[in-house]
Specification:
- It is built from 2 helices and 8 strands; from the N terminus they run ββββαβαβββ.
- With 113 residues, it is mostly beta strands.
- Helices cover 8% and strands 45% of the residues.
- It has a single domain, classed as 2,3-Dihydroxybiphenyl 1,2-Dioxygenase, domain 1, CATH 3.10.180.
- It has an 8-stranded mixed sheet.
- A hairpin with a 2-residue loop joins strand 7 and strand 8.
């Protein structure tokens, strides 16, 4: 399975510049693409449904072609969900490492004249 590094996720209690709120996870996230080191800060609401490991531990995120294929035989921490309209994510544990796998929507075909 091919995986391409995307970002490092760091839980924080500080309000970050340009945060986006993900209602399903009750979490505020910064844009890792706006960071020169591709860091995403995650600030969780007190009643977040996300597991403790995600609220307390940093994670590495990778883009994969298929989340379903990436999760086969893995210890899944958070089942796949739509983080945004363009991105589906899941979290898994590999040894002591927390990993986010991200599946991007396919680019729409270019319109023909």
């Amino acid at each position: 399975m091919a995986a391409t590094f995307h970002h490092i996720g760091v839980p924080t209690a500080r309000v970050g510049q340009g945060e986006t709120y993900i209602a399903g996870g009750k979490v505020h996230v910064t844009d890792p693409e706006a960071s020169p080191y591709r860091i995403e800060f995650l600030r969780f609401e007190p009643d977040t449904p996300m597991p403790e490991i995600l609220r307390k531990q940093c994670h590495a995120a990778f883009v994969v072609e298929s989340i379903d294929a990436a999760l086969i035989g893995q210890e899944v921490v958070v089942e796949p969900f739509a983080a945004t309209a363009e991105v589906r994510v899941a979290f898994l544990k590999v040894g002591d490492a927390l990993i986010e796998v991200m599946e991007m929507k396919k680019q729409q075909r270019e319109r023909r004249p």
